[in-house]
């Protein structure tokens, strides 16, 4: 091992650069065997030696590497370099390198590193990739990652160049999602008839409409009850006014109403704006049926990918209709479900949520789930039956929406 290290130090600058590029190409080829659907992402990064940095990093166009560091690290632990390569690729794929202007860079770096490391750990745990799993403690993230994020700031400072790079990775993200779905579909062994039959079974078992209706809470609300009246006044009129009944409707009745609801929308690259509109439209159709809305209700609509992107609070049927007409999807990064649960916890502490009935999370299911069961009903809603439904925690409901639509119409 010592001899190899000395050999590296004796190489010329050109030889070191060529060796570094070969190392990265080898890592890419090995990762491609585990993740063939990432072919577009792998092909989008070139390599460039840069001795001004201590480790490696990327700006979404190039992977910059310190040749001496890379050769030394690869000799010590090839798997760590492969993991580092995948780590950087996921940063690009989930648009982390395009930091939001109002975010603290240190906090952003830590959150993004934690997110991609958990994704990699998940792949390792499922046997999708042959890498060592890091320690689960988040404090270990910094010791397991070594990419330099300085290039993210440079990308953010480039107006037209940064915009083009971001658009490129947005297209790659969409392509990757379709590519992965297509490969999974081709790998299936069931006939179309069998698949359609299973879809029907799942739709019947995991009926979103049925689930949502059960959370309409019985509550007394003051309103005219035109179907019943006070019989005392009725009899009085018949007796004293020549068979003229006095009808006075009761001024209240018990009705099924939804008090508070949180609807979270997974705005990762796999969910289109049209798909989200259809989901909200179906939800509105269920809730707007006779006597299912309070005159003043409270529904949170939260857009979230790996971070909370937008929160809207709906108080009336009119506001809901307006939201659906003008909804704009924000995010398009990776998926982490936990920020929504944290948002709910904070809102309950602030007494903004007092009678929360349920959290409904519309998603494709590919993300990081919370480890603890909350004190309210939770349902993850899918467009159609998928293997990702197996990832949903046992304490949460798993539902299918889109009844009456074909699989092609409902495709994410």
Give a summary of the structure in a few sentences.
The protein is 46% helix and 17% strand. It is α/β, with parallel strands linked by helices and 412 residues long.
Provide a descriptive summary of the structure in words:
- With 412 residues, this protein is an alpha/beta fold.
- The chain folds into 3 domains: 186 residues, no CATH class; 164 residues, 3-Layer(aba) Sandwich (Rossmann fold); 35 residues, no CATH class.
- Helices cover 46% and strands 17% of the residues.
- The protein is built from 15 helices and 11 strands.
- Strands 8-7-6-9-10-11 form a 6-stranded mixed sheet, sandwiched between helices. A 3-stranded mixed sheet has the order 1-3-2, sandwiched between helices.
- Helix 2 crosses helix 4.
- The longest helix has 29 residues.
Strand content: 15-25%
Overall geometric form: elongated
User: How many discrete structural domains?
Assistant: 3
Percent in helix:
40-55%
- Tell me the structural class: alpha/beta
Number of helical elements: 15
What is the H/E string? Answer: HHHEEEHHHHHHHHEHEEHEEHHEEE
Sheet with the most strands, sense and barrel status: 6 strands, mixed
Return the average pLDDT rounded to an integer. 75
Low-confidence stretches: 1-7, 187-205, 220-224, 403-412
Strand order of the largest sheet: 8-7-6-9-10-11
How far apart are the termini?
Answer: 50 Å
As a whole number of angstroms, the C-alpha radius of gyration is 28 Å
Number of strand elements: 11
InterPro entries: Put_metallopeptidase_dom, VWA-like_dom, vWFA_dom_sf
Domain VWA-like: 261-399
Domain Putative metallopeptidase: 25-195
Pfam families: DUF2201 (PF09967), DUF2201_N (PF13203)
């Amino acid at each position: 091992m010592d001899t190899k290290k000395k050999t590296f130090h004796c190489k010329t600058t050109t030889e070191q650069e060529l060796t570094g590029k070969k190392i990265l190409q080898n890592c890419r080829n090995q990762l491609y065997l585990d993740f063939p659907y990432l072919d577009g992402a792998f092909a989008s990064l070139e390599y460039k030696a840069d001795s001004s940095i201590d480790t490696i990093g990327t700006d979404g166009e190039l992977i910059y590497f310190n040749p001496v560091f890379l050769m030394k690290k690869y000799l010590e632990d090839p798997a760590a370099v492969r993991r580092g390569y995948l780590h950087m690729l996921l940063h690009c794929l989930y648009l982390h390198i395009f930091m939001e202007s109002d975010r603290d860079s240190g906090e952003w770096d830590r959150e993004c590193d934690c997110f991609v490391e958990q994704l990699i750990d998940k792949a390792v745990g499922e046997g999708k990739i042959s890498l060592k799993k890091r320690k689960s403690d988040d404090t270990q993230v910094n010791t397991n990652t070594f990419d330099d994020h300085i290039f993210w700031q440079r990308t953010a400072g480039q107006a037209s160049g940064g915009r083009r790079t971001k658009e490129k990775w947005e297209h790659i993200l969409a392509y990757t999602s379709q590519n992965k779905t297509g490969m999974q579909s081709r790998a299936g062994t069931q006939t179309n008839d069998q698949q359609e039959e299973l879809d029907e079974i799942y739709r019947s078992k995991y009926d979103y409409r049925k689930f949502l209706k059960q959370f309409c809470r019985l509550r007394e609300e003051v309103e005219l009850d035109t179907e019943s009246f006070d019989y005392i006044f009725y009899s009085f009129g018949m007796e004293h006014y020549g068979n003229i009944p006095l009808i006075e409707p009761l001024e209240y009745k018990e009705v099924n109403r939804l008090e508070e609801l949180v609807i979270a929308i997974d705005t990762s690259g796999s969910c289109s704006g049209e798909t989200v509109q259809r989901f909200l439209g179906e939800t509105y159709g269920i809730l707007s049926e006779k006597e299912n809305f309070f005159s003043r209700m409270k529904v949170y609509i939260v857009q979230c990918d790996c971070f909370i992107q937008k929160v809207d609070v709906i108080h009336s049927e009119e506001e809901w209709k307006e939201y659906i007409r003008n909804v704009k999807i924000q995010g398009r990064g990776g998926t982490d479900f936990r920020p929504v649960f944290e948002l709910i916890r904070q809102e309950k502490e602030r007494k903004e949520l007092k009678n929360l009935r349920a959290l409904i999370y519309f998603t494709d299911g590919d993300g990081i789930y919370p480890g603890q069961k909350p004190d309210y009903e939770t349902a993850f809603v899918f467009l159609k039956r998928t293997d990702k439904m197996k990832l949903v925690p046992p304490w949460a409901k798993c539902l299918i929406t889109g009844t009456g639509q074909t699989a092609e119409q409902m495709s994410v």
